[in-house]
Design goal:
The structure is a single chain. The protein is of the alpha+beta class. It has one domain: OB fold (Dihydrolipoamide Acetyltransferase, E2P). Helix content is about 35%, strand content about 25%.
C-alpha cells in the first residue's frame, strides 16, 4: 500500500500520508526522539505506543523483565502500566530487535527513564548481553544489595534462562 501510494502520480494526499506514516514509524529507529501515547502494556518491558494513528511495538532497551508466568512478572507489568499507560512518552530509538519491535529508552512525562525505573525497583534485570549502559548495571547492583523486588527472592531466575528452559 505504501509503495503503491508513493508511485502514484494521481494521489498526492496518499503519497503524503504514506510518507508521514513511514517517517513516524522510522523516526524512533534512527536514534531520534519520538513522542506517542502508550495504549497497551504487553508485559513489563514491551509496550505499544500510538503515533499518528499507528501503533508501534516497543521493547524497552537494555532491560529484561520477568516473564508473566514468572515471579514478579505481573508486578513488572503493573509497574509499567502505572507509570506509562495512557501517558505521552518520549522514545529514544536504539534500532530493532529480532521480532521487528522498536528498541527504545522510554522517557516518562516527568523525564524519568522507564527502563531505569524498572531496574531500580528490582523489577527488571540489566540485559547485559545487549546493553553497555553502566547506569543500568549500577541500578541493578543497588536493587540487589537492597533486596528490592525480585532480588528479595533467594534465587531469582533470569528471564532468558526461564525462556531457554521453555517455561513460558
Amino acid at each position: 500500500m505504501i509503495r503503491g501510494a508513493l508511485r502514484s502520480s494521481r494521489s498526492a494526499p496518499a503519497r503524503c500520508s504514506a510518507l508521514l506514516i513511514l517517517a513516524l514509524v522510522c523516526a524512533c529507529s534512527q536514534g531520534e526522539a519520538a513522542e506517542g501515547t502508550v495504549v497497551r502494556v504487553r508485559d513489563g518491558d514491551s509496550i505499544v505506543v500510538m503515533r499518528g494513528g499507528v501503533g508501534i511495538e516497543v521493547r524497552l532497551d537494555g532491560v529484561d523483565c520477568p516473564e508473566l508466568a514468572q515471579a514478579f512478572g505481573k508486578k513488572a507489568k503493573n509497574f509499567t502500566s502505572n507509570l506509562a499507560f495512557g501517558k505521552t512518552v518520549r522514545l529514544v530509538g536504539k534500532g530493532k530487535d529480532r521480532y521487528d519491535r522498536e528498541l527504545a529508552e522510554v522517557f516518562l512525562p516527568d523525564g524519568r527513564s522507564l527502563n531505569r525505573e524498572l531496574v531500580s525497583a528490582g523489577l527488571a534485570w540489566w540485559y547485559r548481553k545487549y546493553s553497555t549502559d553502566r547506569t543500568l548495571e549500577s541500578l541493578e547492583r543497588s536493587a540487589r544489595e537492597a533486596r528490592r523486588g525480585l532480588w528479595a527472592d533467594a534465587n531469582p531466575v533470569p528471564p532468558w534462562d526461564f525462556r531457554a528452559a521453555g517455561r513460558r
